[in-house]
Amino acid sequence: MSIPVAVQLYTLRDLIARDFLGTCRSVAKMGYKGVELVDTRSILTAANLKKEMAAMGLAVAGAHVGIEQLESNLDAVSAYYGEAGVSHLVCPYMPDTRRKTADDWKKQAKILATIGSQLRTKGFTFCYHNHDFEFQKLGGTTGWDILFSGTATQNLACELDVYWVQFAGENPVTLMHKLSGRLPLLHCKDMAAGPERKFAPVGSGILDWKGIFAAAGKAGVKWYLVEQDSCYETPPLEAVRTSLENLKKMGIA
Length: 253
Prior knowledge:
Blueprint lengths: L4 E4 L4 H6 L1 H11 L3 E5 L7 H11 L2 E6 L2 H6 L1 H11 L3 E4 L10 H20 L3 E5 L7 E2 L2 E2 H7 L7 E5 H6 L4 H7 L6 E4 L1 E2 L7 E2 L8 H11 L3 E4 L9 H14 L4
Parallel strand pairs: 1-2, 1-12, 2-3, 3-4, 4-5, 5-8, 8-9, 9-12
Antiparallel strand pairs: 6-7, 10-11
Helix pairs in contact: 3-5, 6-7, 9-10
């Protein structure tokens, strides 16, 4: 069974701020099977979100919700996304004030595991999305090691961002093998050649996509999620279209 491809709407953040539904329609027309949301609770009711996505033929692969909201408003968050039919919730970032030391990471691991346990009882899979800072050395360990060795698989899964893994000097494929059964969502963005290591459409940079996609099938990935943090001079819709076209050429989309 092929793995479907969605787009993380953070890439299109300026467009969705002006016209959320129109932007989603453009994504659907390109051929994307779904979207991953940046928290939409202030944009649409849960019922309308579910209705509009169904009308476009888009699935909601997941939703990013900040750690502060997950801590303070978990009941409201889970009620909204449960009604909307969303099954994956993701902590997209750990603020730097929470992660200065190994002890800080241990505290965050407990917080995330507690959130994940509560969400699991409500039918959600809870994921953490990495950047590069999780791989910084903290004595003999890293934030990454603390998070994923100190939490149970059923309470904290991973949304691996392969660009940031590469940026941190790690091997995405090696890491994916270690996450087998714990990796439902995969963020796909490429790294342009050159010292600046700019973001690039999938398939136009230096990442080992053949190896990544082979590992994804073995790891149990449920969604590929195209994201490009900055598109520079390229219009964002054009950038995500290029990623999808390249994925089609690779036999993925």
